[in-house]
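Repro:
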Amino acid sequence: MIDVLIGAAAALAGSALTGWMQLRSTARAERTARRERVVEAAGELSAALRAHREEVFARIRLERFEADSEHQAGARRAAWASQTRASDALDRLHLRAGPSRLVDAAEAAVDSTVTLWDERGVPDRDRLGDEARAAHLAFLDAAAKHVAR
């Protein structure tokens, strides 16, 4: 009789241990998948920010060389489209990462990149460009820290 009780207890303990290990494994897989989604969204936002800076500087170059209004209008539309892509990428990151320092840094990077197109003149644009690049690097740093935790 004792043998049966010991066997039943061992079976129950084995089942409980197996269930607990599966639960841990599933939780770990979910965390890994979430991290991968955040990394993907952060990479998408980083690329969108770079693309928007490129579009803005292309627009500035056209303005400096006094390109015709048709080319300037095309550059303006391209800059608006790239700004929209950056905003969309920020939204996706926010949905995947939730409220966090990462999202705060991402919002600062988007804000500083969007303000590049400024009518105040070239020195301000150069300063704003430096600030946008610094905010971009701070965002990448926050992304690395967010994923590492």
